Model the fold of this input.
Amino acid sequence: MTGFRVLFSVVIHHDFFESGYCNDINIEPSRATLAQAKNSGVIFKPCLGGLLVLCDAEKIPILRLYIEDEGLIFDFYITSSNPYLSNCSSIPLLKDKELLWLKHESNQSDNTLNGLDKYQLQNSDWISVNDYYSKGVITDYFELEALGFSSKTFMFISIVINADELSMLTPDTSSPSNPFTFFTSIQNKSSYWEYRVNGDFSKNNLNIIDRDGDVNFKLVKNETLSDGCTVAIFRSSIEIKLKEFSESYFQLIDKRTNGHRVLVKRLPVAHFSNGYQEVVGTKLTQISEIFVNC
Done:
């Protein structure tokens, strides 16, 4: 079979975004990977949430020679144009002395991809603190190229393909198949939601309810402002995941003996940039502030 075929794709998922993919990122091959691609008929093409790696079917034998000689290694670095990406992620994506580095390194005799159509690059369900490496280790691996990486670089991915895996990724068939995917997943941040309801509620018995019944809210306290207005502060009983478009449906009600009256049919949802940190129990926790005027 002639022409280009997809060898594999590299995809980054993020649970914050509605699409399920990490927005505002670029996956770039390293200089060594670009040089290897030029010699072996490999090209790169952006795709949703990542990058497609395509190869010239007629040059697959050259890829096999790389495996026998230097090894078939694909190194990528990931940058983000979104300065708030860490704010909506469960872990800080940028650190002063460490960076995320995810790897697929199989022994020459192993085919860890056999029978799979996708491979998770991190060991746990989500990227975690165990996936950080010191910047010194990464600089040594990428040699002088690491010195030129953009300050927006927050992750590195290294994929080593052996002979058996290459055969699996390049089947000798004319039937189209879904490309193999190397993927990683970033978990979205969770927080306690704190509603600060401003208004004159002297005659009301306020409460916040979840229309779906999953989350309870507790009145933490009432504050009296200098202008005489009262701020009623409610906090969720559990941490709630922050989403690009949240499906949470909370209502402000006036509780009465014969039922309740809805004051705000649907309250605004939390935003990852509004809030503060507080120790809840023994854990430093994010508190998301949501301001409501009635």
Q: What stands out?
A: The CA atoms of residues 75 and 158 lie 4 Å apart. The longest strand covers residues 4-14.
